[in-house]
Amino acid sequence: MPEDFQLLDFKLHYGPRIERMVINGESIPPEVVYKSFPVRRATYNRVGPTARYSFANNNPEAMASFFKPGENTVEVVVTASKPWEERPFSLYVRFLAGSEVAAAGSEAPGREVSGAYVPYEGYPNLAVLHVGSDIFNPGTREIQPTTVGKLFYQYFPDRYDFLVVYPLFSHDGSDSSYYVRAQNRVKGIGLPEKDLSSWFGSAGRLLGMAVVMPGTKPSLVLHEIGHQWSAYARFCEDDGSHVESLYKLWQYAPNHWTPLLNEEYGVVGGGKWIDNGDGTFTRAPAPTERQYLPISLYMMGLIPAEEVKPLTVIELDQEPGWWQPGSMIKGHERTITIDQIICAEGERTPDVQSSQKAFNAAFVVLVLEGEEPEDLERVLRGIESVRRKVPEAFARATGYRAQFDTTLYSREEMPDIAPDSFGGRD
User: Fold this and answer.
1) Quick one: pLDDT at residue 95?
2) Disulfide engineering: 268 pairs with which of 230, 282, 365, 413, CB 3.0-4.6 Å?
3) Which domain holds residue 353?
């Protein structure tokens, strides 16, 4: 293997919890493993019972230093709290010489594939792309997001911050929704700075891509887009000596604010618990509509640090679980301040005065050749309904601090808006 190799992809699929990982004789603590490979999706099948957690890299460079050119040895030791969790797991490591490190889920620069934009009468704001089987990664049913981006930009201008993509066919095994970040230029939110937007066909405008399924509500679109900024922040302990994460339930959804963050139910996680006064807490009913929590608004650059009140987190005095409204847990509360978060991550840059507050998104529909839905008109009508609702839903979720335009423009129609008009983008 050439000396200039870099770790391109590292995926771990397993059911039990990781106790220890050893790479070339060096022990990697579980928290490092989890932080390096946050959950892209988690599939739970309670028949059996079985459960599978699929971890995909959001930060592969965090582990690259543990590997070397040539052969590498990897040992993974797992533990199980129940007998049925003692199952095999699979490990996948891939290197690419001289390559940039891949963005989460993108795996490689986009490929040129067959496909065409097909306008549908009555749906001028939906970019319906008819695609062939080469939209998948070779030998799989996995969509390569960068390739979807490359196809989109053949027909539409590079004036969008987000692409919201609806595949109308089975893909990626579980057909779950997920978010793929194309770039991050923001400091202080727990993410490395990088720009791989060119892999998607953008010249620097695209922030990321949300892949969602038909039938999803506007709230899910807001949820996936929220992952551009949340939830990645860490905090310093009171003495400044130790840094932990705000999302402690690694085995469930580490890129979400933990449900033990006892504030409110937010767009990107969090929860609400009733203190029973005896060392137990009962999970409160979920609201019909959620907003971005103040900590998320800060990460998005929409409020200053002084508007983030101290966060209350419940530390468990029992084993973690998967809790529904009405569930009861044993634990005790602790407080985390915004100063502790800034201690770990630094101040958010750009700050609230210069951060981006107006966003454009294109809604993209993928129709696979030979698998066209018989009720395509109904499906398009449902997606269009969501597209129309998202701008107001986003505005409400941000407390009307930001706006979201979902108009689909052609190359000729797109207003030539300077980046500075969108809040001082570099």
Assistant:
1) 44
2) 230
3) 105-426
